[in-house]
């Protein structure tokens, strides 16, 4: 990373952290961009250089994970079932949450509890599901236009992830997210599907 890139990342991180603290204490709707920039010690103009909206501060945290999920899915061994490959690829999400559990649980709680953030999350997830479905079709050597299995597997996998995430948040992270996700995948895909 160049010095300029490190500086940009530092400003982005400061904005994200300031926003998280405010949003966690005040709530999403009650927090303004002016409050976020004041807490981060930057101008509104600087804020808009990094983010388009207040929602983007939160959703940006997850933005790169869709590409990583697709790449992780493509790298899974060919012998794995589609469901097992998808479950293992979800490690890009669970590892991110596991790396910083306090921040992650605050982010997840905010996202799940705010209609505006949930809408942005689901908007992103639509693309992630499509990418995962396309990769599963490639792995399965089927045409996704005529075979429902790849897209359906991706959709069910994301539903399992969302359910596991909700349980993890509801339990304040007492049980590991991977444990919740394993349970969810076993319920929907069964032991033999994994």
TrEMBL record:
GO terms for molecular function: DNA-binding transcription factor activity; transcription cis-regulatory region binding. Keywords: DNA-binding, Transcription, Transcription regulation. Residues 9-69 form the HTH tetR-type domain. The keyword Transcription regulation applies. Residues 32-51 bind DNA. The keyword Signal does not apply. PANTHER family: HTH-TYPE TRANSCRIPTIONAL REGULATOR RUTR, MYCOFACTOCIN BIOSYNTHESIS TRANSCRIPTIONAL REGULATOR MFTR-RELATED. This is TetR family transcriptional regulator. It comes from Rhizocola hellebori.
